[in-house]
Design brief:
CATH architecture of the largest domain: 3-Layer(aba) Sandwich
Shape: globular
Domain N-acetyltransferase: 137-289
Structural class: alpha+beta
Keywords: Acyltransferase, Transferase
GO molecular function: acyltransferase activity, transferring groups other than amino-acyl groups
EC number: 2.3.1.-
Largest sheet: 12 strands, mixed
Strand order of the largest sheet: 1-2-3-4-5-12-6-11-10-9-8-7
Number of strands: 12
Helix content: 25-40%
Number of helices: 10
Order of helices and strands: EHEEHEHEHEEHHHEEEHHEHE
Number of domains: 2
Strand content: 25-35%
Distance between the termini: 36 Å
InterPro entries: Acyl_CoA_acyltransferase, GNAT_dom, MshD_Acetyltransferase
Oligomer: single chain
Radius of gyration: 21 Å
CATH superfamily of the largest domain: Gcn5-related N-acetyltransferase (GNAT)
Length: 289
């Protein structure tokens, strides 16, 4: 006899994950557990995605972790979660599934109005220094007057991202996400902001986060017409060589599995692949397109 319960204890979650050789390494707001005779068989960790909800004017949920002892139990657990989201009028659910978890990917793909919207390859390296010639442009912290130019550069710079692959999200809405994401980073969310400027014009930017021992490449873009001029290389090298970055144990970057150009850059700069994920958006209240 299966029962589904909310607010599973952290100890029970950790015990289940350890039995499956997984670790509890993600923050979460809510938990949902599948129990059989009082024994935890599966868990789903999730949160309200408040910033996304505000930007898109939609109710968005983010599934942070999904694990169970069998594919059947995983399906039963997710379907219970899906039913509640239908009743509370959630617009869409974002689910990130480790690429090696074929069972979980299959369960998510079977859900009504489920869309595969991309992938992520996470790469990492320890901080280092690079031999390089001086670029033809200047690198440095953005000036206050650069904000609008940098935010405008975010427009159409991230078209391989999941927001642009969702048939229920407009291009305008997807661009708004990245422009406001960029603005938030400039306003203090990012630990490091770097602008590339040529003759006073912003031709690229990079924003990095600091999280414990990890420096994270959050956003990077190069102005159309300036691709292939090693701007991304110099932006990333500048981030890695920052004194603040050198205090971290690792530098991480993420990009879509089909973004071959970005992956080649990271690999040339010493990054190695650590983990890959599949991304899904599920719209409980819509018919599949």
């Amino acid at each position: 006899m299966y029962t589904v319960k909310e607010n599973v204890s952290k100890e029970a979650i950790e015990s289940l994950l350890q039995s499956r050789q997984l670790t509890l390494d993600v923050p979460y707001q809510f938990s949902l557990g599948l129990f059989e005779n009082s024994r935890l068989q599966g868990v789903l960790l999730y949160e309200d995605s408040l910033w996304e909800s505000q930007m898109l004017q939609k109710k968005v949920m983010n599934v942070k972790l999904l694990a169970a002892n069998s594919a059947g139990q995983l399906k039963r657990l997710f379907e219970a979660f899906y039913s509640v989201r239908q009743m509370d009028e959630t617009d869409f659910i974002f689910v990130r599934v480790p690429a090696e978890d074929i069972g979980a990917a299959h369960v998510i793909q079977q859900q009504p109005s489920s869309y595969f919207v991309g992938s992520l390859l996470k790469l990492a390296k320890p901080p280092s220094f690079y031999d390089k010639t001086a670029p033809f442009f200047e690198l440095g912290p953005p000036e206050p007057g650069d904000t609008e130019a940098i935010c405008e550069l975010a427009r159409d710079s991230f078209t391989k991202s999941r927001y642009f692959q969702d048939p229920h999200l407009s291009r305008e809405a997807a661009n708004k996400i990245f422009q406001e994401w960029t603005r938030n980073n400039l306003n203090g969310r990012a630990a490091i902001n770097i602008a590339a400027k040529h003759n006073g014009e912003v031709i690229g930017y990079l924003q990095g986060l600091s999280r414990d021992d990890e420096c994270i490449l959050d956003l990077m873009a190069v102005k159309p017409g300036f691709e292939g001029k090693r701007i991304a290389f110099h932006l990333l090298a500048n981030l890695i060589e920052q004194p603040e970055t050198q205090k971290h144990k690792t530098v991480t970057a993420g990009t879509q599995l089909h973004n071959v150009r970005a992956i080649r850059l990271y690999e040339r700069m010493g990054f190695t692949a650590e983990q890959s994920y599949y991304y899904y958006h599920i719209w409980p209240g819509k018919e599949a397109k």
